[in-house]
Amino acid sequence: MRVVGFTDLRPFELEAPLSAMDADSVVVALDPGANALERTVSQLRRGRAALRADDTDAIVVYNGSGMLGIVAVFLSLVYGVPLVVRANGDLFRQHDEKRREHRQTGRWGAWLGYCGLAALTRVTFHYADGFVAVSESLAETLAGQTRCPRERIHVVPGPVTPSQYRPNPIADGASDSDTGSMTVLTVTNLQYRGKYLGARRLVDAMVELGERRDDVSFVIAGDGLYFDALERYVESRVEDDPLGTRVHTLGFVSDVAGLYASADVFAYVSHIDAYPNVVIEAQGAGLPVVASGGYGIDEQVEDGETGLLVDPEDTTALVTVLDGLLSDAERRHRLGAAAAERVAERNAPESLGPRMQTVLEDIVTQCA
Question: Domain spanning 2-159+348-367 has what CATH number?
């Protein structure tokens, strides 16, 4: 089997499972810093070269949004090769959220741009011969939003390299050996309102938790459109609170692995996701995870076994769960160790490669 892949975002997530297959794969990774025209020309030129080089059984495009997907459709039709979308996120929800935001703020040019982006993505999904989603939740969304037969929509979870996120050796109640303080960490993409609202929920919970104990700090890593709004929200919530010196909004952080290694608990709340990478990264680092359910997160966290799921709307319940976990070193260690073992088994590229090959072969066979 020979596969040609296209991506303009996070190439590891496409390259890792494809390269671990017992097959020939070529991934055309486009420069995300180039403009749209440059990326389109590069994809056409490099894609034609890859497809001409040898017989190709499938084209796989990462998410398939915008012109990346349209060019993949064009190459699929010209060369008669089945097109598969590797779906990593709920683009329908993302595009709807962005259109709503821009409409409410009167940014009509940006609103029109997202209307066009959504339309192009719909075209790609219409022509796709199959989908490989990162979660069952996303697979069901695709089944409802596209005309693709359900038997051609498969699930292969997202990859993580366990060795990159070393198990946390200090999740024992003493992140800071001098002060005895403990750290709750969240890492999120503040480009989306649904994730910004999740971060706000955690800030609310940490303020309440700070009233119960003075040994905990909260670190929020992540940048994006809503970063300034989150900073303002934090300031408004902790202005006269002792926790104010213990809530840190870091923005973009390159050494995320280092953050995982210095934390005691990873907390994550989101209202827009499909299978968040940060959850499996934290689990790979041996951190116990406290998270909201849904959006593929409950497929990552087995409640009570590899982490704890909570109702994000119930702040008191969220605080109680965090407080109990911070007070129980043995439970933190047990949950974190189980999570790290599960990620190593389910999300390592060498585990995903055979699964990816099987589902691609199945889609190709059904297209024959």
Answer: 3.40.50.2000
